[in-house]
Amino acid sequence: MSTGRWLALWSACLVAFLVLSLVPLDGPSALVRQSAFTAIMLGALGWATGRWWTALFRRVTLRDAGLMVVFAVLGMITSGVAALVVRSLFAVSANPLSGGTRGGTGQTIVEWVGDAVQLLGEELMTLLPFLALLHILTGRAGLGRRPAIVWAALVTAVWFGALHLPTYDWNVAQSLIVIGAARLVLTLAYIRTKNLWVPVGAHILFDTTVLFLVPALT
Fold it and tell me: What is the mean pLDDT of residues 21-43?
């Protein structure tokens, strides 16, 4: 792919994020917003790559399922340590989504489906810029593959954390360090497997545990 198409993909990620941010969170529009968020990036990926867009989505094996659990746990440990450090130095803000759903069974199912669709989109929102930056650093800047991977992972972790600033009351330390640390683990899951379903699964397990199960048990 050309650099222009990679940059167009990155721009589509930003447009998708704006859609996610501007449509109201609650009510029946939430699922529409979450679906549009992910569909914009999938559509851009299809436009940029043609029939090769499915290369990101490999068949999930039993080993992949196990790695989802491994990276989810690793993400919890990494972000937990980062949270302890940040909490000792700065004030922190609670995630407004923590604590579970507020409706009946039907609404709960819709919310969980919407969250899964959104988390697929969040992985696209990070990994498409990661691949774009990797292309630019290796193809244009002449950087070696390993240092390019490190820089691309770090930059997109900051990108992902920065996009969470509104969620955490613009708390820079919490968004960039805690969320960024968890993001690095999820990006590593893709680097390790080259299968986008693995970080998606790990992300779903991570959020389910941290945002729903832990508050319910404490």
Answer: 84
The distance from CA 81 to its chain's CA centroid, rounded to whole angstroms, is 19
The verdict on residue 30 lying in a domain is no
Could you tell me the pTM of the whole model? 0.90
Work out how many domains the chain is built from and give that number: 1
Which domain range does residue 119 map to? 58-217
The pLDDT of residue 217 is above 50: no
Q: Is 205 exposed, middle or buried (0-12, 13-18, 19+ CB in 10 A)?
A: middle
| Residue 11 φ then ψ, to 5° | -65, -35
Q: Tell me if 101 sits within 8 A of 108, measured CB to CB.
A: yes
Measured from the Cβ of residue 218, the count of other Cβ atoms closer than 10 Å reads: 5
Task: Please name the residues in contact with 120: beta carbons below 8 A apart, sequence gap of 6 or more.
Answer: 38, 200
Residue 42 domain flag: no
Longest dimension (CA), the chain: 55
If DSSP codes are grouped into helix, strand and coil, which group holds residue 126?
helix
Residue 11 included in any domain:
no
